[in-house]
Every structure is written in structure tokens, then in C-alpha cells.
Design a protein that fits this description.
The protein is α/β, with parallel strands linked by helices and about 210 residues long. The protein has a single domain, classed as TIM Barrel. About 25% of the residues lie in helices and about 25% in strands. It contains six helices and nine strands, in the order E-E-H-E-H-E-H-E-E-E-H-E-H-E-H. The protein has a nine-stranded mixed sheet. Helix 2 runs parallel beside helix 3.
Amino acid sequence: MTTYSIKEIYYTLQGEGIQAGRAALFCRFAGCNLWSGLEKDRLGAQCNFCDTDFLGTNGENGGRFKTASELARHANKFWPDETTKKFIVLTGGEPMLQVDSSLISELHNLNFEIAIETNGTIICPPEIDWICVSPKAGTKIAQKTGNELKVIYPQPELNFSKLLDLSFEYFLIQPMDGPDAEENTAASVEFCKENPNWRLSLQTHKQLGLK
């Protein structure tokens, strides 16, 4: 029996990417395949700049759910208005370690438009409405199609020309957060000016003090 482990669920505005500014319910799955030492050996890479707590199930509205229906109904409680089109973002960690067609179906039955934010190492169910892939250097991209390809910048090991060969609607550069955030933002701006196939994505939720 599938058990879904959820770090947190919360209602806010999407802060980054093409959907920035849109009201969204975030469902953060616990765990990531680029975090543990075992997976690092298998994938040959590890995301060492993650700014997200995805460990455990003790976050806001988090927990373990035995069925897709149970999780979908739990998430639905936090959308404020049944009369509006609902939008949920499945994120992590790495959501594709747990997301399956059963969960997608249950969320669609509750009238959610479904987005996913993934590192792209696992192929997504085709029923997902909006796919955002954020590739990490040293990993093999399995999900080669989608809506957004969003690269945290800088990652000098990535081949940006080859990334443009992938089948995405939008190609985004997002400055890496942390102690060098200001320098990374300036470098990202210059990259997009020099490479107009790429757009700049900013983490506006952090600027606004949103979760």
C-alpha cells in the first residue's frame, strides 16, 4: 500500500517562475533523491544549495497519508473558496518519489489544476497540467518535456546550449540564494541579457516575506 509522506501544506502565492503571483496551494513531499549519500553515488551528483526543509512530516499540515484520496481531501481543506479554479503545486524535496497517477486523478476530481516542481530525474505522469523541471549539474534529465525549465544559477557544470534542445515552453534562470545572492542575481541578469532565449525568474515570495 502506498503511503504519502508530506512535510507541509500551505496556501500562499506562487513566488517564482511563469506562474508567479498566482494563488497556490503548496504540497511539499518529504524526501529527495539528490540528498542522501546513497543516491549521490548512484546519480553522481548532490544538490548542495537547497534552501528548503523537506525532512520529516512535522511541518504545517503535514503527515502521512495511506491513500491518494485521503491526501487529496486533506489538501483540499486548505483551499479557501470552492467557487474558484484551484491550483496546487506538488513540490519537495523531490515530489516524483511519491506522486503517482492515483494522486493526480484524485486531485483532478477535486477540480485542482496541478503543477509540479521536480529535479527532472524521474519521468512525470502525463496527466500533470504544468511541469517545471529544475535540473541539477551532474544528474541525468529523464523528464525532457514540460512547461518551464528553471535553472538555479550559477551552475557552471551545466551545458546551457544543450538544455535549449529540450522541449519546454519557457527557459528560466533563477539566481541562487545564500550568502552570494546579490552577486548571483547580477550574474543572472547579465546572462539573460546575453542569452535572450532565457528569462529571469526571481523568488518574489522571499522579497515579500511570504512562505
